[in-house]
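User: I'm writing a tutorial on reading structure tokens. Could you give me a worked example: one chain, its sequence, then its tokens, then a sentence or two explaining what the tokens reveal?
Assistant: Sure. Here is the example chain.
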Amino acid sequence: MTVKRRRLAELDPDLPPGARGLAQALRALLPLLPPGTETFALLAEKAAEDCDREPLSKSTVSRYFSGRKIAPEWFIRWLHQKARDGAREGQHPPELSDLLELQISANTPTDCRGCNHFIRQLSHRAAELLAARSLVWQLQQKLAAHQNMDQWAGFEAGRHKRLTAANRASAPLPVPRHWEDRQAELRDTHAAQRIATDVTSLLSQQKLHEAAALLQNALAVSTPAEMTALVVVLRGREVGAMTDTLLQACGRDLQAPAVIGLAHGLLQKRLAADAEKVLRAASGRMQDSPAG
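And here are its predicted structure tokens:
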């Protein structure tokens, strides 16, 4: 039976350079593939089977080669190996490291025309978060001042009563000891959920570059605790490839104390593999930097 081979349309001229470069590189591997991978449906089936992954749709694989969707790292590694296996004498696929560099570039756009709106939106939310933190701090200071005044008034008006109460067994505090830590954790989680919701919404609309830009700017304004919460939420929503790219950016761009804080937070959340990715990216950056 004759197998209907895949057809490739021309790449959209409006694609960002990173996505275009990756799509062109992946297309160059197609003539090298062995028999049994002639259609996108066969490619999807074979990739999921060989890599023990969830089944892919042929439309998803088609978008990998049109630049409409950024192929995940595992698929690129699998496709490169298949091209090597199917290449005839004199045919040489591009280096795997070059393909992975193109994937990172495609996930970290620098010329996205649609990003400015989301950058402004993120900056506005960051300013709101800072203003809310400042208000919380001011309220805490006022509360502490009122508590001190009440204690002084109570000391003057009821010294005998306090001395009598001191002889009784002390009662537990009405407020948990780590209330402030819990409130801070909730704030971090709420901020992470807002960003994750925006990211997943953009991904559902195939706006990969806008989602990547949103995460890149979140990295620039977030604390290690907020980044930890964001990774946890993204993992829960199964945004794997975008989360891996974010972890690499954290290790590459954050200062050493922030990297350590993020890795510590991920370990506390039992995300040891993600903590290792951040530390490896940071270690690679330090090795690549000139000595002295």
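What the tokens reveal: The chain has 13 helices and no strands. Residues 169-173 have pLDDT under 50 and may be disordered.
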